[in-house]
Specification:
Length: 321
């Protein structure tokens, strides 16, 4: 089961889709348990597996922190199982709705910054980016897009198809051509898996190279990401764990066998783009500079640094540790 879930979460194209998938599965789990103890243990196991599969997702981490805290509160209060299940299911449903609403709001804000005739380069797959460009077209802007293929995984192929369906002229390029086409581009627009407290952006590997090329070419870089992707953990100096995919994502089993055990293949899924290469972050609260991330975090959590429990601590409590 864990292997299947991990595969599905990795194959989910964007952070929003991955969170949507995980939360819907958790909603089903919450409704199926037969005791409070089972609810606590199975929820803890589920959350641990999901975060192991998608460790860079600030959306999942932030949402799970809220859900686990509420579950512990309900358990300590001695509420009946039925009431606990209803409250948790309702909270999950609320989080799903709020995440989608945030995408719609930030997409509207981003679309207003896109003028007619713009040529936009994007990397990998982001529903927030696609929705922003779609809204720009709905507002009457005639735009074109360059989309990198985004290996490993090739999510850019899906992005290119989705933009084409929405009537946006699109050109798919190999990742290494990003700098080559940059002089034809007016702006770069990418999504994010997580935004660190210093404004650094965790996104599909290759994003940092695109941002570096844009910086050198004096092309502005915008990141479309709701505030639910702002990472509290990085406030305390914790590093964002970068997952990788198996060597088979790049080479066939026959090729790997022929090359031998000493031949190393590493395919990281994410990288970190420094804030100095980011011009602005488009959120549902407005368009902000990377330096303003701590201000937003203070507004969200009421203090600086935020006083929030760690996920590992919550999981241990639920397991009885």
């Amino acid at each position: 089961m864990r292997g299947t879930r991990t595969s599905r979460l990795y194959s989910a194209l964007g952070a929003t889709e991955a969170a949507d998938l995980a939360l819907k599965e958790l909603h089903t789990l919450v409704r199926s348990v037969g005791s409070m103890e089972e609810l606590k243990v199975r929820t803890a196991e589920f959350v641990g597996e999901v975060l192991a599969a998608r460790p860079t997702s600030a959306l999942l981490i932030n949402t799970f922190r809220e859900l686990l805290s509420e579950l512990l509160r309900l358990s300590d209060s001695g509420v009946p199982l039925g009431e606990a299940r209803d409250k948790l299911a309702s909270l999950i449903e609320h989080r799903l709705v709020k995440a989608r609403e945030a995408v719609e709001d930030l997409a509207e804000m981003g679309a207003r910054r896109i003028v007619g005739g713009s040529v936009i380069l994007t990397h990998s797959y982001s529903y927030s980016v696609i929705r922003t460009l779609e809204k720009a077209v709905e507002r009457g802007a005639r735009i074109k897009a360059y989309v990198t293929e985004s290996r490993p995984g090739g999510e850019g192929l899906v992005t290119a198809e989705e933009l084409y369906k929405r009537g946006i002229p699109v050109t798919l390029i190999v990742d290494s051509a990003a700098r080559f086409v940059m002089n034809r581009v007016n702006m770069v627009l990418v999504g994010a898996e997580s935004i660190a407290a210093n404004g650094a952006v965790v996104n599909k590997v290759g994003t940092s190279q695109v941002a570096l090329a844009a910086h050198e070419a004096r092309v502005r870089v915008f990141v479309a990401a709701g505030t639910y992707k702002f990472s509290v953990e990085t406030v305390f100096g914790e590093l964002v764990e970068i997952p990788s995919v198996p060597p088979s994502s790049l080479l066939s089993p026959e090729e790997l066998g022929r090359l031998g055990a000493d031949y190393k293949v590493w395919a990281p899924l994410m990288d970190v783009t420094p804030p100095e290469y980011i011009d602005a972050i488009v959120t549902e609260k407005g368009i902000i500079a990377p330096e303003a991330v701590p201000v937003i975090l203070r507004e969200l959590y009421g203090s600086w640094p935020p006083q929030l429990p760690e996920i590992e601590e919550l999981l241990e409590k639920l397991k009885g540790g």
